[in-house]
Amino acid sequence: MGKVMEVNGPLVTIQQNNIRNGEQVRIGKLGLVGEVISLFENRALVQVYETTESLHPGEEVEGLGKPLSVELGPGMLGQIFDGVQRPLNKILEMSGETIARGLTVNSLDREKKWHFVPADNLEVGQIVTQGTIMGTVQETPTITHRVLVPPGKQGEIVEHAGEGDYTVEEIIVRIKDRNNKLVDLRMYHDWPVRTPRPFQSRTSSAQPLLTGQRILDTFFPLLKGGKAAVPGPFGAGKTMVQQQIARWANADIVLYVGCGERGNELVDILETFPQLTDPYTGRSLMERTFLVANTSNMPVVAREASIYVGVTMAEYYRDQGYDVVMVADSTSRWAEALREVAGRLGQMPVEEGYPAYLASRLAAFYERAGSVNTLAENMGSVTLIGAVSPPGGDFSEPVTSHTKEIIRTFWALSKPLADARHYPAVSWIESFSDYEARARDWWAENVNPKWSSHRQQALTLLTQADELERIVNLVGPEALSSAQRWTLESAGIIKEGLLQQSALDETDSYCSPEKQFRLMDLILKFYETGNELIKLGMPVEQLAELPENGKIRRLKSSIANDQLEELDSFASELFKHLDYMRAEYAGTKETNA
Amino acid sequence: MKQIEYKHVTAARGSLLFLKGGTDAALGERVAIRDIDGNIRNGQVIKTSDKMILVQVFESTEHIDLENTWIRYLDEPFELALSPDMLGRNFNGIGEPRDNRPPIVSSLVRNVNGSPINPAARAYPREFIQTGISSIDGLNSLVRGQKLPVFSGSGLPHNRIAAQIVRQAKLPDESSNFVIVFAAMGVSHSDARFFETEFESSGVLRNVVMFTNLANDPPMERLILPRTALTAAEYLAYDLDHHVLVVITDMTNYAEALREIATEKGDVPSRKGYPGYLYSDLAEIYERAGRVKNRHGSITMIPILSMPSDDITHPIPDLTGYITEGQIVMSRELHSKSVYPPVNVPPSLSRLMKDGIGKEYTREDHPHVASQLYASYTRALEARNLASIIGAEELSQRDRRFLAFAEAFEDRFVRQDAEDERSIIETLDLAWELLSLLPPEALTRVSEAEIQKYHSWDESR
Questions:
Q1: Together in a domain, A380 and A461
Q2: Residue B194 covered by a domain
Q3: For residue range B396-452, what is the model confidence (pLDDT) as tens digits?
Q4: Is the domain of B89 the same as that of B212?
């Protein structure tokens, strides 16, 4: 037994022998749990996951003998956990509406029986190694949970359970390891959160992570196993973008980590997701979703842990051969938690008070993303998408600038766009994607070979329009040629008819890849035809005032993903009309000549 | 331990008192400090070890000497006694009466720091609150359980707006049923007086609990005042089933007090000298707003903060904006054009609006109308920008229409008398009247059916 020597906010100095760095400890009458972060002589410094109010010097401390770990097994999907993997619904039953301190709860339900089906080849005498699939459990109607031999365990099966209903505590396989020691394997195991889970090898995936959001999928694609960041000042719609990804991403499993954000946002997910349908399986979205919540008013040290708790759970489903997306909202709050602890430790601040190890911690976290060949020779992936909340919207601040160097897809949100209610407010100037070259093949094969050139053309058009707008703001629109004004007009159509997408509109909330391409194709064709007409002498005003102009801008919400033939008939009508006009102008031109 | 007085002060600096350790003082414990004149001051343990105890003194350490100061540990955190008798009363930051009436006596006491609400226990706020102000109801609707701050600046009429909201806020189909908790930190006598008069004249005074710390009261008390006020609000909402509207002014004074104590403690500063934990600290206050499942009451919060030199990227409004569910921003430009309320529409936002409006709560066209007004107004501001460069005569006819829309929007939609209470239907009808200044093809955010129903376009205008 050790004892408390000093209490300084979430940091507690204890006097304790035989304790390891990283080990968890239980402190005082309340039984607050914390983690050793540094040792000196016979003292240890502990960061505590809960508020330390009313703790005083002299209280007793007990080492728990293991680092911060999570329980991995069936029963995580559909749940909401706190930053140290305590199930919040269970806490609600135990302590009511507010979270009491010092509660010990098992992360996985110990009472619930799961129907376990042993793997076909599971038999006594068989040698199993880490990652071997021992059997399956239907965790939700859409997700089959594969029960794995935990990393680091191997041996010969001496006994195993048959098909039947078991709790996670019951032994399903007993093996004899190299030293002839019996090892019991259950449906769950522990894993320390700060250690990445092992796999065979990394693979280079070329599967895009489709989100149904045009600006993301078409313009700044992300791959499964990739890493992306969404920075933006407050009010730019970060949360909305993240929630849309969580809703519509073509992943098997989605984990939403609310790290230092609003409580109501998590409630929004908890209340709306069960009613939403997964476009890929037709089942409730909640069946593939789970959450980790450390809201902004919950203790700051657990916020630091929540990111690791989340990514470890994501890796566990990856190891079963699933494509997992983890959305972390927001990594800035996680960095601030690091800063707060560092500040109390009196560590030398380098930039804006952040400690020197900020960049390396961020890089190590994002490195846990990836597409891998698992120990069981399955393909699985973890895609990491981190929100960043730069103070004052300044992208040169440390968290944003370090993150930018690590990630490969950058979805920059812009305040001016958000103020104009252009949502999603992803800036086409500041955003980038390094995955475009790899995504190109998928689009060419599955949608249309022209995807890449179309995308480039649309982006060029937008950039040109931005430049022209600057001229207009200096000298007025009269200084532009007709062709230039048509460029401006067409860029306007791209912005409104393609880039803007309403999350609240039932039809437009999710846009299939096919529809994304067809809309882009139509708009670009309209632009080119317009160009020809202008060359023939048609006034730009006449083009701009065509009633079809407004209709093209509304196509995204007037035509559903499964009614694309209507898009064809609209296009053929439109271009017939334009052809007619072309003939008219070509005629006049000839007469004039 | 409660009865023992210690004489072990080793240093006094600003509002901090350094005591010799060894008394096992608990973190957050309340202490009573008796100085040489026999006056009792209030303090709280903010750091404790076997060697040294650090106490923050709400009334500052002025006139304290090291020899003749006695410390009594009260063995309890800061607590507030709660009873229905609090309504109609005025307290200071630690819950002592300011109105010369006896203190609240109750067996029910609660720690003012509260505990975080379990996210799984929250209910999503959805019920539209009608404030009677078009620029809020129409464009940035407030819902019950929301925290929606007012970002203002010195000299702007945020107090009048707050008073107007307090006076008019109600659910469209219910009469006013809000109980008000008013928390004032570092405000001037005249501001405090303004609110008292307002509450009195609108007849809500007996439904108000006031917590006041004036500009010349000890700044450290501002750190605990919003927590005390919210403890009262939680009691009124969750124990007594009231819908509570909490008005907090001015959060800038709170954050400055926090910076003062952080600097004294030697905390590592992050931006503009504010401590790195300003975000978490503000969140502890703001996140106490909300709705809880199976509880009738709710806490809706309207914090007011003045942006130092009107800078919205200053840490206080910036961090607040990241925590709260939107913001109502005041515009100095509109104010100087004598538009009241000077709501700066583009940067204002209500995040919870989407679920609190529409067919079920207001009217089916509301979401589209709001979006359309935003889009058209932004477009109109661009036209106005252009006009300032090339002159309004040079604008195209389309741009001139937008220019006229901008003028009408500011003059008729945003501008509104302090006594003018518009129902949401009146607000939406007014919005369509203004949108009718624009041709139907310029309105792409509203549906064609809505244009048919509400839009009256007259080409000749």
A1: no
A2: yes
A3: 888 899 999 999 999 999 999 988 999 999 999 999 999 999 998 888 888 889 999
A4: yes
Report d(CA B327, CA B324) in Å as an integer.
Answer: 7
What number of residues does chain A have? 593
Query: What is the DSSP pairing of strand B208-214 with strand B90-91?
Result: parallel
- Decide: helix, strand or coil at residue A353: coil
Q: Calculate the dihedral angle through the C-alpha atoms of A283, A284, A285, A286, rounding to the nearest 10 degrees.
A: -130
- CA–CA distance, B316 with A504 (Å, rounded to integer): 31
A57 → closest Cβ in B24, B269, B390: B24
Residue pair A222/A208 in contact (Cβ under 8 Å)? The answer is yes
Reported as type and span, the H/E element at residue B320 is helix B315-323
Is A87 contained in some domain? no
Same domain, B67 and B177: no
Give the whole-number percent of chain B exceeding pLDDT 70. Answer: 99
Contact between chains at A343 and B352 (C-beta distance less than 8 A): no
Which residue, of A42, A67, A92, is where some domain finishes?
Answer: A67
Verify whether the Cβ–Cβ distance A267 to B292 is below 8 Å.
no
ipTM: 0.90
> Are residues A555 and A498 in contact, defined by beta-carbon separation less than 8 angstroms?
no
**Are the beta carbons of A504 and B389 separated by less than 8 Å?**
no
In angstroms, the CA B152 to CA B155 distance is 9
**Radius of gyration over every alpha carbon of chain B, rounded to an integer in angstroms:** 25
Helix (H, G, I), strand (E, B), or coil: what is residue A589?
helix
Q: What residues make up the domain containing A256?
A: 201-435
CA atoms within 13 A on the CB side of A216: 31
Residue in chain A nearest B290 by alpha carbon: A264
User: In this structure, how many other beta carbons lie within 10 angstroms of the beta carbon of residue B223?
Assistant: 22
- Give the pLDDT band (50/70/90) at residue A172: very high
